[in-house]
Amino acid sequence: MPIQTTAPAPLSPVPFQIPAAFETTLPNGLRVVIFDEDRLPLVSYRLAFFSGDAHDPKEHNGLTAAMVSMMTEGTEDYSSRELAEKIERLGAGLNVSASDDFTIVSASTLSMYSADILDLIAEVVFRPTFPEQELDLYRRNTVENLKYQRSQPNFLANEQTSRLLYGSHPYATIAPKAADVEKLEREDLVSLHRSRLIPNNAVLVVVGNVDRDELLQKFEGHFADWPRGELPSVDEPNLPERSARTITIVDRPGSAQSNIVLANLGVKRTHPDYFPLLVMNQVLGAGASSRVFMNLREEKGYTYGAYTRMDMKRLAGDIEATAEVRTSVTGDSLKEFFYELNRIRDERAPNEELNDAKNYLTGVFPLRAETQEGMTGLILNQQLYGLPGDYLQSYRDNVAAVTADDVQRVACAHLHPESLAIVIVGDAGDVLPQIREYASDVEIFDTEAQPKDVSDYELSTDDADANISGTWQLSLDFQGQPVAVTLTVVQDGTSITGTLVTMLGEGEIKAGSVSGIKFSATAVTDLQGQTLELSINGKVTGDSMSGSITAPIVPDPLTFSGSRS
Amino acid sequence: MSETLKLPPLEVAEYTLDNGLRVVLNRDMAVPVVSIAVYYDVGSRNEREDRTGFAHLFEHMMFQGSDNIPKAGHFQHIMKAGGTMNGTTSSERTNYYETLPANQLPLGLWLESDRMRSLAVTQENLDNQREAVKEEKRLRYDNQPYGQIFDLINEMVYKNFANAHSTIGSMDHLDAASVEDVQEFFRVFYAPNNAVLVISGAFDPDEAKGLVETYFGDVPSQPLPTPLDVSEPTEVANNYREWEDKLAPFPAFLLGWKIPQRRTPESHALYLAGKLLYDGDSSRLYQKLVKGEESVIQLFGFTDERRGPSSIFVGAIPKPEKDLSKIRETIMHEIHDLATHGPTPDEMQKLHNQLYNDSVRMRQSSMSRAQQIAEFALYDGDPALINKELEELLAITPDSIRKTVAEYLDTENRALLDIVPAGKG
Predict the structure, then answer these.
(1) Of the candidates A561, A419, A409, which has an alpha carbon nearest to the alpha carbon of residue A487?
(2) How far apart are CA A282 and CA B131, in angstroms?
(3) Residue A283 has pLDDT above 90, yes or no
(4) pLDDT of A7-37, one tens digit each?
(5) For an interface test with B, which of A5, A37, A83, A85 has the most B Cβ atoms less than 10 Å from its Cβ?
(6) What number is the average pLDDT over the span A285-293?
(7) What is the per-residue pLDDT across B313-364, written as a single tens digit (0 to 9) for each?
(8) Residue A478 φ then ψ, to 5°
(9) Distance of alpha carbon B55 from alpha carbon B45, whole angstroms
(10) DSSP strand E in A144-295: where?
(11) Per-residue confidence at B1, pLDDT binned at 50, 70, 90?
(12) B219 touches B297 (CB < 8 A)
């Protein structure tokens, strides 16, 4: 038989039907959804409440996160340890989590322990005690974790993007401050628990090998005495209107990479444009065969990955284009992003591209239903966002029905290249000149979210080149520890040579130059027998110098400052 | 109150093509999805001493095109069909896998067969992937706090070069690798008679067999590579090392022990002992260190089960200002307690339920079934072991756990890697 030289045709499609789930509402308003599947002896529970982090009281940022974490750290009948032992002795899992819009108790177990895990769910939901000692441990561990997050460029980019898009709405806040966490008191958790976990604002989804009638009887026992509460108000958000592009930079001096986020407000999850947007996003940037990936990575080689993504929450959403690129191609990357954002608005997508995107979305859908966790996620989302009853059954047809005109229409309606928020985490001094042309409105922050003076970063090209000859006594910040560095510079025109002396030894400066008040140089030093190349960037004002050193062994640039002796 | 659970056996049919390719079909029609796993019997353990990292570099080359598939085409074909895919390299094997809508089985088989038959090895692709691997090493090992400690402890536990050296390997060795090296490696190790093909999910067995014959039947076999000696002395190669980690924000340590090979009663017992020590919030060490003493930020442990001598590790990142030697004493004290008294009845019940649970969950996804079956087929020559593994683990007694922990863990024969944040000590 000859070797097949082109991709073989698929076999005839296999139908994939998801039967409808059973739904009912208990007298206290608790909505119950049961999806009975007997494939394997497993059962999954999700008890979800329609409020989350975004409903934190104004003066208590981080309260919901603390409450969900603490719900499994002690109850009236069991200590934190006993709970962990009870759950794991069943071979089961049980945890509580929160997102902006929802608070969710999740549990999965072998179906023979279905009743036991339900008892434990009830224990955690109705009888948590929030022990002081556990809360103290939570506060200390969370503050450590928040510190760590500030070292992550993604966190810094999201912090700014959310603030710019959502303004005064709680969606704008992605994490509490350390001070918020430190002032959390046990009474706050008790009070939130009382008002938040009410049956008439919740849905209980059960998926697996269960006996429906038996289960409903159990629910009577567990949930009949659970009183209704006052529904939280859900106001239409009042979000900032954007009329022009803005540039926001989080300065990480010496950063080798720029994390780019281009964002505008999008749509909430129930928007009628959902399916056309899904396909549009697939063509534009959702995957590794989408346009922005093919352009910025495959063609230009600017980055390891470039994508667009849509975040659709309950009340609002956003659309973002993101990439982590080498600092020197930050401006070029923006150019390519804008090219792609405009192209999908200005031109109809070719049929082949449209079909590839739709085939991916319809093909990958059953893969998500293969595990019980996946199936539970699909059904839960349907409930959380109030999607139509036949949503899962009609999903693939809805994707298939999207046309090239639809894609172009929603691109025009929901992508706004002229009023995007441009957020970049990187070296502000290097990045700003590359992207200055994209907006007149510029703001710069440090990694602690403190505003910086933009004029410090804008360098006029006709500044005379500084003279940085001499010996400089500098202090380098190495993970919070000051390290003394002596830099000796000999300047000849705009080129510099010299030495760099640290506690690790002496290095030679080569390939250095001065431009305006800025300078950059490469130093070569020996460290434990290995030759190490350091990249130094800085600026000089009078006898003061500041800047950063990047080394291949250190992830983040080390900042320094000092003066001429 | 320990209940028992009877799981119906998975359908496993095994046969061999004329060219020596071992094929296993695992049919499960629950969801119209199919997974394909191709496991080649080559890993870093097969590498020459002057070509460490080569097996992994080679894995990258497998995505660079073949006679009928352009560079990066494999990926594009899978995406457009609504599938997912990847490849990985370990000491033991190199695997390639995809999950697709059931009717795209021909596509997946065609893609795998084309590169098994006719990999495109060019200087340009090699140079390009060498750079990609270097980026990967920077990203995942050099540029991560604690990124190199698992490679370091392997060098301390194992003496035999085949076992001890890292999978990511030496960049100097990769620089020295030539197109001829790649071609030779492909010829020796990527032959059909050195591989296992598993298809799991929704398919018609006759149709699948026909497709396998069509696409793989004419890939020529090759003389098998010479068998490998992975034997080890009982003692670990090196008891203590201090490692200065430039990126680590806190001190940390890692303990490693050398243990018997996979699928022995000892290996099973130590896997269960490990779960009791470090797995989950109710584990002994979590309760002692994260909760009780509140001395540890992160605690972790795992077993590395190989065809030859294997290993088990326990590590911790303590909170600032905590005494590391005290934490290690606590760990060794718990191990000694397990070696003296064995697991409690409650702990045995937990283990049994977790084993049932893991076994049922593994069965849900066609990809996890395909991967486990491929390992049994490749390492043990018996894919049907997937239906016996659970029973074997359930048969391990508390006393055999006690004895095995006493022999292999409650001993001075272990490696300690001390990680010191550079610039602070």
Answers:
(1) A561
(2) 29
(3) yes
(4) 999 998 888 889 999 999 999 999 999 999 9
(5) A85
(6) 92
(7) 999 999 888 899 999 999 999 999 999 999 999 999 999 999 999 999 999 9
(8) -105, 100
(9) 9
(10) 202-208, 246-251, 257-265
(11) very low
(12) no
Position B425 scores a pLDDT of 35
**Whether the Cβ atoms of residue B96 and residue B37 lie closer than 8 Å to each other:** yes
User: Among B16, B249, B44, B55, which residue's Cα sits nearest to residue B163?
Assistant: B44
Q: Which of B30, B117, B282 sits opposite A88 (nearest CB)?
A: B282
- Quote the longest CA-to-CA distance of chain A: 88
Average pLDDT, chain A: 91
Residue in A with minimal Cα distance to B201: A370
CB atoms within 10 A of CB A493: 8
- Sign of the torsion formed by the C-alpha atoms of A186, A187, A189 and A194: positive
A505-515 and A441-445 beta bridge pairing: unpaired
Give the pLDDT band of residue A462 (cuts 50, 70, 90).
low
Residue B106 to residue A11, Cβ atoms within 8 A: yes
Q: Let me know: does A161 contact A320? Beta carbons within 8 Å.
A: yes
Query: Measured between alpha carbons, how far is B79 from B290 in angstroms, rounded to an integer?
Result: 43
Q: Are B236 and B245 in contact (CB under 8 A)?
A: no
Token pair for B134: 């270097």
Q: Under a CB-based contact definition with an 8 Å cutoff, are residues B367 and B200 in contact?
A: yes
Q: CA A491, CA A465: separation in Å to the nearest integer?
A: 11
Q: What are the residue ranges of helices labelled H in B82-204?
A: 105-118, 123-137, 149-157, 161-164, 171-176, 179-189
Answer yes or no: do A363 and B81 touch at CB < 8 A.
yes
Place of tokens 């405009």: A342
Q: Hey, are the CB atoms on A367 and B99 less than 8 Å from each other?
A: yes
List pLDDT tens digits, range B27-83: 999 999 999 999 999 999 999 999 999 999 999 999 999 999 998 889 889 998 999
Name the closest residue on chain A to residue B98, using Cα atoms.
A367
Tokens read off for B385: 């072991």
Neighbours of A61 (CB within 10 A): 20
Report residue B424's pLDDT band, with 50, 70 and 90 as the boundaries.
very low
From residue A426, give the alpha-carbon distance in Å to each of A77, A390, B154, B258: 51, 46, 37, 45
Q: CB–CB of A81 and B287 under 8 A?
A: yes
Q: If we measure between CA atoms, which residue out of B182, B136, B169, B40 comes closest to residue B97?
A: B40
- In chain A, which residue's Cα lies nearest the Cα of B207? A11
* Smallest CA–CA distance from B103 into chain A, residue: A11
The Cα–Cα gap between B37 and B20 comes to: 17
Which residues from A are below 8 Å from B423, CB to CB? 478-479, 481, 483
Q: Is the pLDDT of residue A224 over 90?
A: no
- Identity of residue A138: Y
Q: How far apart are CA A476 and CA A562, in angstroms?
A: 9
Reported ipTM = 0.91
Burial B386-409 (b: 16+ CB within 10 A, else e): bbebbeebbebebebbbebbbbbb
Residues of chain B with Cβ-Cβ distance to A112 below 8 Å are: 3, 5
Tell me how far apart the alpha carbons of residues A490 and A498 are, in angstroms, rounded to a whole number: 6
Give dist(CA A376, CA A382) in Å, integer.
Answer: 10
> Which candidate, B39, B60, B38, B36, places its Cα nearest to that of B108?
B36
Q: Which of A285-289, A445-449, A460-464, A542-546 has the lowest mean pLDDT?
A: A460-464
Crossing angle for the helix pair A132-149 and A63-70, to the nearest 10 degrees: 130
| Widest pairwise Cα distance in chain B | 66
In this structure, the strands spanning A421-426 and A246-251 are: parallel
Dig out the tokens for B418 from the structure.
């001390």
A529: pLDDT confidence band, cut at 50, 70 and 90?
low
Q: Which helix (H) or strand (E) holds A419?
A: none
B337 burial level (CB within 10 Å; 0-12, 13-18, 19+): middle
Cα B51 from Cα B43, distance rounded (Å)? 12
